[in-house]
Each structure stands twice: as C-alpha cells, then as structure tokens.
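Researcher: Please generate the 3D structure of the following complex. Treat every line as part of one assembly.
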Amino acid sequence: MICYFLALVLFVMGLYCLVAKKNIIKKIIGVTITEYSINLFLILIGYRRGGIAPITLRGMDPGEVAAKGVDPLPQALVLTSIVIGLGVLALMVAMCLRLYEKYKTFDMSEINRLRG
Amino acid sequence: MPDIDEEIRDTSKGMTSIVKTVVRFALGIIVIFGAYIVLYGHLTPGGGFAGGVILACGYIVLTLAFGRQIALRKMNNKAASILDTSGVLAFLAIGLLGYTGGYFFLNFLGRGKMFDLVSAGTIPLCNIAIGLKVTASLFAIFLALSIFGRFISSLVDEDE
Amino acid sequence: MEIYLLILLIFMIIGSIIAIEAKSLLSSVISVGVVGFSLSIAFLMLGAPDIAITQVVVEVLILVILIRATITMDNTAIEGGGGTFPFVVSLVFFGLFLVFSFFAVQEIPKFGEPLMRVSERYLRTSAEETGATNVVTGILLDFRGYDTVGEATVLFTAIVGAFGILRRRGRKKKTEEDAEKVGILEDEDIKKDFEGF
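Model: Done. Output below.
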C-alpha cells in the first residue's frame, strides 16, 4: 500500500516540475519523472508476493511459472511504453532546440515576453 | 579517400586514444550482446526493444569515440531511414501473413520444440523486425539531434 | 524484500527532488539518471528482468539526449525561481491529489496480491500456445500483437516528427539549390560543416 503511495508521490513531483518550473529542460525532466512513476505503478500492481519472473527456464517445472509468476500483462505494456517515452523525449528535445535557436533562451517567461 | 585505419588513428578527431582503444575492444562485445538479446528474445529476458536499443547504443558509442565520419560510413541517414521503414513494413507483413490462416497476427509457422532457437513460429522474426526498426530509428534520432542541431546553431551564428 | 523496495523508492524521490530543484541544468540531468537507474533496480526486484534491461539502456540514451540538449546553452545556471503563485497553487492542488489518491489506493488490490484474471490464462497456456518460454514476449508479439503495431506506429511518428522539426527547410534560403534540399544533409555539407567532434 505504502509503495503505491510513494509511486504517486513521485508522479506528483514530476507534475509539479512540469507546471511550476519555467525552464524548458526542467519541464522535459518533469515529463520524464512522471513517466517513470507511472511505469513503476503499473509494475507494482502486477507484483505477486514471493513471485518469480514469468520466464520458464531450462529444467524448470512447467507449472511453476503458472503457480508463482508475477503478472506478465503490465510488463508487456510497460515495455512498449518505455520505448515510446524515449521517442517522445527525442521529439521534445528537438522542439526545444528549435525554440533555443529562435529565442536564444530556454526560459518560458522570457520566450513569452519576447513574443510580445 | 584516405585509409580507414589511418583515420581511426588520427588523434585530432574524436576522443583520446584511451577511449578509442577501449571502444575498439568493447564495440564487438556490445554488438554481439545486442544481437543475442534480439535473437533469444523468446527464450530469455530481452527481445526486440531492448536489443534494438543496445545496438543503437553501439552505434552511438562509435560516433562519440571516433567522430562522425567513421560512424556515417557505417550507417548514414538514408540507410537508417530505409532500415527503419523496412523494419516496420516487415513487422506489418508478418502480421498480415497471418491472414493465410484466418486472422491478423496468427502464428502461422510451427511451434517447434521448446527451448530451441528456432521455435515459437513467427515470434523470432517479429523480434528481428522490431530490433531493426528500433536500432535504425534511435540512431537516426541521435544523428538528427547531433548533426542537424549543430547545423542549426552554426546557421544562427552566420545570421548574426 | 519490501523494505528494500521502500528504501529504493525513497531514494528515487530524493533524486527527483534534487533533479527538480538543482540550480544547474547539468546536475539536474544527472539526477534524472539517478532516478532512472534506481527504477531499473526496482524493476529487477519486482520480477521484471525484461523491463529492467530495457530501462537501463533507455536511461543511457535519455542521458545522452538530454545532455546534448543542455550543452546547447552557453550558461547552464538557472536564473530566478518559478514565482510564488504557481508554487502555492500547485502545492494546494497536488496536496489534494495526494489525499484523494491515499484513499484511492485502499480500493485497488493489495500490494503482493494481484487480480490476474486474464494473466493467469496467459501464464498457464503461453508456453504451449505460442512456443515462447518468455511469457512477456509471447504476450507482446502473439496474444497482443495489435498493441505492438500501435507502438511501432507511435515510435515511427515521433521519429518523423523530430526529423520534420529539425530539417533544413524554413531557414533563410541562400540559393535556389538550398531551397530544393529538404531534410537530409548531403555528404559534402557534413564534411564541410562538421569537422571532427
């Protein structure tokens, strides 16, 4: 229970960074932290106490994974989510470089002021 | 065109010779490990995503240590785009071939024996396609960010 | 086991506080690395070696990309805070969010006892039905192939978007020939403009 709550605290901190900070790189860091916390939350939900990884190894009884394995479904979804996160981060950094090229600053309030 | 060995030994490009020597030893291991992770994705932890990112990291290490010229000779932007697209198309084609047996993403090949490298029907093929796609697209992103990005800032200087 | 997980989570929270509040952007980026690598250890402890491998290598790439964005700036120090009003407003709303979420997490299945309605069938039959001994790969590429197709589409779109944003057209055109070139740089341009590293 407390693990879920700590993951949500991490989520809120990422969201705070996204909302309250003015530097664009800081905002990107906020998005990254939010994404980490959601991935962690999904994996925490699928954990089974004393569970093993859902992989049958050579010489292992076939029923052992079915009896003791952790939930594989969130793992499969989070695996795709991590790689998507990397692509989206690259997209955000690309936008960020364009903004720096145009306004010569990473500060949001400065960019708003320059736009008039 | 200058000899590639001479260009590698050229100390004016890339990082110091310590880094270059270490990278020369480590790069083969990185690439073999990435290929292992992709090919054995259905038997051990890993798969197309993780192995693809490891292979892309191999290219990025090459770029960082030896400079862009050497890395671009191995894979340039156009090759990366073509590999990226062909990875997606191969994955979709494997999915569409499932219609030969009835529905999308049918595992139409034989299951094989468990714990064999060639088993599990289309899953290793899908892993290879995804690995190709992830490798090419992440390397292309790195090239775009490093080369185009510097190009942008140099253009800004010219404008001023 | 769970006490180690709690320690790791608290470590991650401290790392993210440093990442959020650091005055220098470079140290902020490196603190994100602390959070990401701890996250991969947490995945390993939670029985997810697939994701742990992916998280480690993706974290390395994230650090490379973020540092590349950071060194664009000449001055990586941050001037001025976020101001008082956004700070207070976000503190109030996120405090409310945490209070509600505290009651919400009581309702979902307890930690260590997942529901596993669909997953139980996957775990039982994956080895026979797909032939893959790694159940996660079996789900990813066989039971739920549609999701993976969607993922490939999203990744492709993100890459194309980044290329579109970073491409050359739209800058000041020097000659007609420059206007014709879209996106990919020619080889001689690369050689001319970017000698060495």
